[in-house]
Write a structure and sequence with these properties.
homodimer, about 220 residues, mainly alpha, Arc Repressor Mutant, subunit A, Tetracycline Repressor, domain 2, 10 helices, about 70% helix, DNA-binding
Amino acid sequence: MNAKSAETRARILDAAMELFRRQGFEETTMREIAAEAGVATGAAYYYFDSKDAIVLAFYDQSQQDLEPLIEQALAGAKRLKEGLGALLEVKLQYFEPNRRLLGALAAHADPDHPLSPFGERTRPIRERDVASFARVLESSGIRVARDLEPHLPRILWMYQMGLILFWIYDRSPAQARTRTLVAKSGAIVERLVKLTAFPLMRPVRRMVADLMDTVTEEL
Amino acid sequence: MNAKSAETRARILDAAMELFRRQGFEETTMREIAAEAGVATGAAYYYFDSKDAIVLAFYDQSQQDLEPLIEQALAGAKRLKEGLGALLEVKLQYFEPNRRLLGALAAHADPDHPLSPFGERTRPIRERDVASFARVLESSGIRVARDLEPHLPRILWMYQMGLILFWIYDRSPAQARTRTLVAKSGAIVERLVKLTAFPLMRPVRRMVADLMDTVTEEL
DNA sequence: GGCTCATTTTGAACACGTTCAGATTTTTCT
DNA sequence: AGAAAAATCTGAACGTGTTCAAAATGAGCC
């Protein structure tokens, strides 16, 4: 029965997320998850390849949930720094209850690891995300030089990943430091992007474009 | 006996490093390490808090080994990009045989984790490292604006950490892509550092300085 | 040497993520 | 409906990092 199977899977995922929230990822046991979902330990492995894979399932789900929210955040022309801030704020608010859990994802910098934000497994998510930065850039009305244009969205995406990583481990109350960082760095980024239009910056632009080719090569 | 104890510790560390090199960190068992060192499993835990801690011990050791090599690399006034390249190259060559092992360190972005490059435990190493970038900067002869001066070495250190992370997971033959990246990004960094001296950049400089205060706050 | 105490070493035991041979349930086919 | 096949589920077992009570060894002292 297809529906019942899906329901069991959902029950395991829900149980896991509930426990992760309550007591953290490391502190939660696969046996606990299965028990909470009312199945045997092995059943959890029938639906998920690993404990990590549960987090990945949550991450997949989040991208679907976020799509309309991001759409809304992008609506209307805004200054670049506001567009970037809005995009990030949507994500931070969505992930707020599971902030620490994201650490389980962030821990895998190895592109070969299925959970890596830079890996093959997460490419579709990543590419859609990069595209949203292109739209922010577009609606900002800033004229971007031709040579930089293909690369800038991905640079902004990397910038955003850095901020999210900072946020995950931000121990200040209500992650106030991250909020400060978002505001301040947003202003800098906007300023720098505008500065790239100056003729003086042409060599830098070319160097950066060249650099990005190396970084993204077969990535 | 103090000397015998130190010898046992060294034997365990050596056995571990040998096995890590041969078959990788994850694939090596604490039981194997102990057996290779000729002790019982528990003995390894008498000398090291955890499997990770063995990597940390290697990392501590490496900083001692690297000091004279870095000293040498810094000798003589060079262009900034050459100084940066020399500094990085020394480290890459030293860590070459254990490149993948560093992934075990890089995996911990959480500053609370003892193995994190951003944590309290590794602060002394980090600060000494940041200082070496101040020296590279100095010997480059580039005049750095007052407001940026206290922050630039740390920014360069972060830049270097990014490169090392890229290198750890660089799957191109002989890590050729990293070498390309080092050369190209070095040129950009030098160019950007020089550009910061322009009066037009004063607002950006102030923003960056302000930003770095937020980032390094109680860190 | 014998006694005391700290240091070092042992190896069994624990909890964990994961696997797997088999039991049970559901679906498909006639 | 009944048999065969596929999907789902079970729980014991495996190998792992780690802990710990107890044994062995060493140091200091008389």
